[in-house]
Write a structure and sequence with these properties.
- The protein is mainly alpha-helical and 85 residues long.
- The chain has a domain at 26-81.
- The protein has 3 helices and 2 strands.
- The chain has a two-stranded parallel sheet.
- Helix 2 (37-49) links the parallel strand 1 and strand 2 (56-58).
- The longest helix has 15 residues, at 67-81.
- The model has no long low-confidence stretch (mean pLDDT 91).
Length: 85
């Protein structure tokens, strides 16, 4: 919903060039510290419906102090939303 205006503008620019979202890649960035485990799947599904095939997960700014904590967050996210690592 938040991305709807930007996606509409993107669609307009693409149409001017005779292209669609299917012709390009959409890769949204999700932030681990935003949302909840319950909302993560909904966010991914919304982006998938908009044409995204991939996404990135940002774990920066979460207060982690070791690489292992970042990896644990990635593993938690993957298990919660049902994606493989």
């Amino acid at each position: 919903a938040e991305a709807a205006p930007a996606l509409a503008a993107l669609d307009s620019y693409l149409a001017q060039q005779g292209r669609t979202r299917g012709d390009i890649g959409l890769e949204p960035r999700l932030h681990y510290k935003e949302g909840t485990p319950a909302s993560w799947r909904e966010t991914i599904d919304g982006w998938h419906a908009a044409g995204a095939d991939y996404f990135s997960l940002n774990t920066m700014g979460c207060g982690f102090t070791t690489p292992a904590q970042h990896m644990q967050a990635l593993e938690h996210f993957a298990a919660t939303v049902g994606v493989g690592m």
